Amino acid sequence: xxxxxxxxxxxxxxxxxxxxxxxxxxxxxxxxxxxxxxxxxxxxxxxxxxxxxxxxxxxxxxxxxxxxxxxxxxxxxxxxxxxxxxxxxxxxxxxxxxxxxxxxxxxxxxxxxxxxxxxxxxxxxxxxxxxxxxxxxxxxxxxxxxxxxxxxxxxxxxxxxxxxxxxxxxxxxxxxxxxxxxxxxxxxxxxxxxxxxxxxxxxxxxxxxxxxxxxxxxxxxxxxxxxxxxxxxxxxxxxxxxxxxxxxxxxxxxxxxxxxxxxxxxxxxxxxxxxxxxxxxxxxxxxxxxxxxxxxxxxxxxxxxxxxxxxxxxxxxxxxxxxxxxxxxxxxxxxxxxxxxxxxxxxxxxxxxxxxxxxxxxxxxxxxxxxxxxxxxxxxxxxxxxxxxxxxxxxxxxxxxxxxxxxxxxxxxxxxxxxxxxxxxxxxxxxxxxxxxxxxxxxxxxxxxxxxxxxxxxxxxxxxxxxxxxxxxxxxxxxxxxxxxxxxxxxxxxxxxxxxxxxxxxxxxxxxxxxxxxxxxxxxxxxxxxxxxxxxxxxxxxxxxxxxxxxxxxxxxxxxxxxxxxxxxxxxxxxxxxxxxxxxxxxxxxxxxxxxxxxxxxxxxxxxxxxxxxxxxxxxxxxxxxxxxxxxxxxxxxxxxxxxxxxxxxxxxxxxxxxxxxxxxxxxxxxxxxxxxxxxx
Length: 681
Known about the structure:
Layout: H1 7-20, H2 22-43, H3 49-60, E1 64-66, E2 72-74, E3 79-88, E4 100-109, H4 111-118, E5 124-139, E6 165-180, E7 185-195, E8 204-212, E9 215-223, H5 227-230, E10 239-247, E11 250-259, E12 266-275, H6 278-285, E13 295-304, E14 307-317, E15 320-329, E16 336-347, H7 392-395, E17 399-406, E18 409-410, E19 419-429, E20 432-442, E21 445-454, E22 460-472, H8 473-476, E23 490-504, H9 507-512, E24 515-528, H10 529-535, H11 539-548, E25 552-555, E26 557-565, E27 568-577, E28 581-590, E29 595-604, E30 616-621, E31 625-629, H12 631-647, H13 662-680
Parallel strand pairs: 5-6, 16-17, 16-18
Antiparallel strand pairs: 1-3, 2-3, 3-4, 4-5, 6-7, 7-8, 8-9, 9-10, 10-11, 11-12, 12-13, 13-14, 14-15, 15-16, 17-19, 19-20, 20-21, 21-22, 22-23, 23-24, 24-25, 24-26, 26-27, 27-28, 28-29, 29-30, 30-31
Helix pairs in contact: 1-2, 10-11
Protein name: AsmA family protein
Pfam family, one: AsmA
InterPro entries: AsmA (IPR007844), AsmA-related (IPR052894)
């Protein structure tokens, strides 16, 4: 009987078995792998918790910890994660306890979604569930932000963050503490959410409170659903929502639909907005709006991509009423605002803060950190010209092309008639603000020209080129007379032009540096006879006019030619010529010192038996002007009358007799005609 195979032969056969039976070994390996997967799935892959923490920490750039208790990881069909707690640490520079704390979480990710995310698309999370979510999000004044994962560069250098797309979401309790030192925002929000794509009728409500630039902030957001709101692009659906927000005394209410809330891709609905000033609304939005009186408005707004369209059905600021249509394109290198503003009645005083006068923003709504447009003006004792600094930086934030059509512009004085109507184009380009193509009707006349404010430098450069013609002076300047049949103090048709320039950081500084010229002429004019006699201190003729009743003296010539230099206005010629007398004005009006020093000389052309003829002085400040007569000539005449009266009572009248100043009157009349010819040429 042959001997059995030896040990060496058995070993050789064993070595060749894989080659002779490869299917068996593959089956064995598959069974072993399947057993390992089954065991891993059954146990929840607890040994992968640490590698997963390391992977997430590396990808986020922040330390991530997963609570081992209750940790379960599933890899079959999709990646599913369950943990009693997940904590994402705050950046090293932050004092927050954590960036994100999620308790009792469940997350499900599809492999195809992971592959797309690896190719650069947003990660889609099929399911996100947490019993409690707590986040501390912050940004420092130097630009460092806790959401800049994996880098410490300021936000301006950070790459865009692709936020995940969410499927089924359920968060029983959530809170977010947001602190933005760069934007001046502190916010604490609370919400809860249970949302399933198969049952989108669940509601979402968020309530938040905090501060924006030291002003109290309250916000409430209600939406019928959430998930379509978080989708991107064409897949996003419009979701009904309601928003109420209050910042200080500014309140905003919106009811409509929103799409792709993370990027605010689209918005469509009705709004109501009210507040202490338009500037307080425009500043946080990066939109240059003027400071105004308190306002309220309502209308509709629509946003598509980077383009906004706002239709103002009713806008009330102070006593002014306006409406308009505006488009705002934020997708350009320099945002552009275009549109049309239509006003039924506008009071210039309602826009006073925009011109640098008293701010309409209450002290409670004007924190120290707010821009200059929101800061109360400096108080200057004895001064009336607006001294509040312009916010020139605001002029460089965007461009604008807006047409104005105002039915009535009230100049804010009961003595001045309104402009009816006023049409103009308002343009803003690279800090250059222009009001041009100005065409306004004023007291049966016409006002035209342009104004410009160059805000590209540290100081504003202001210039104006205005012309007026056929303006009825008696209608433009309301002249109240106690006698019903008395003529206007002065009447006629005004024509003229003003070409002025100035520079400064406020209206007062611009006027204090004023250079240029103002020329005007009164055509077919008349002046009160009583006013002329009173200006000349003609007692006899003044008494006679008062007894028989005032009448209108024709003005063959009435011209004003004013020169502005370093903020001081000086009359080159300011003459009123009548058949009775010629009135000449000289002196200065200092806008730099806000002081008056004018002299009114009356040269009579006829004889008067009783007069105290003396120059009149207009002095004092712009806020408190004072009219007085030159005391020296009057004192001389009265002293002479007193001395002569000691000799003979009738002789006391001799110093008070005025035979007229023919040469002086002729000189003034010739100067008036020459100035009139220059103006006409």
